[in-house]
Amino acid sequence: MTTSPYAVNVATIVNRPGTMRELELDVTVPERIGEGMIYFDRGAVLEIDLRLETLMDGILATADVSGTLTGNCSRCLQDLSQSWSGTVTELYSYEPEESVEYVIKQDLLDLEGPIRDAVVLELPFQPLCEPGCLGLDPDTGEKLTEPLPEPEESTDPRWDKLRDLLEEGEDRG
């Protein structure tokens, strides 16, 4: 049987209410987490500080998760990497129940689902390489270092006659 790299063996604390165990894990991400412009790529390392607390009906897992996201700036497409950290708290039940999403199976507690959910929900929709990134110049495709000048207002030449009439009226009045 293949186990997930996120799986934690809890055989020593199962059905022992009041027991607490703390672990530090380094998990190599087996497949990409996130589908947007920034994500945890395959092979990235997640550092997990895990606290397991045994209750009457299950185990409460609280994990502080951190790692480095990779991707591209949404304005200039420059490669970027950003550190990310979040907290996951989930109850794992001993028995499958309708109200509990995660169950302890064969003395293993799998953290993948809650970690994936936490990461995906907190990923920035439009990541930036720097807060003031101006994007790319539409003419040259180079990264902008200063804002483009405001474009001059151009009017439809069909309105020129009306503009001339309005200007004549202002000169008379």
| Overall mean confidence score, pLDDT | 89
Shape: elongated
**Tally the helices: what do you get?**
2
Q: How many angstroms does the end-to-end distance come to? A: 92 Å
Sheet having the most strands: 6 strands, mixed
User: Which sequence of SSEs, written as H and E, runs from N to C?
Assistant: EEEEEEEEHH
> Which secondary-structure class do the elements indicate?
alpha+beta
How much is the radius of gyration in Å? 28 Å
Beta-strand fraction estimate: 25-35%
Fill in the keyword field for this structure.
alpha+beta, 173 residues, 14% helix, 8 strands, 6-stranded mixed beta sheet, two-stranded antiparallel ribbon, elongated, single chain, 2 helices
Structure explained in plain terms:
- It contains 2 helices and 8 strands, in the order E-E-E-E-E-E-E-E-H-H.
- The protein is of the alpha+beta class and 173 residues long.
- The strands form 2 sheets. Strands 2, 3, 4, 5, 6 and 7 form a 6-stranded mixed β-sheet that branches. A two-stranded antiparallel ribbon has the order 1-8.
- The mean pLDDT is 89.
SSE order and pairing:
Layout: E1 7-9, E2 20-28, E3 38-39, E4 45-54, E5 58-72, E6 79-93, E7 102-103, E8 108-110, H1 112-122, H2 160-172
Parallel strand pairs: 6-7
Antiparallel strand pairs: 1-8, 2-4, 3-5, 4-5, 5-6
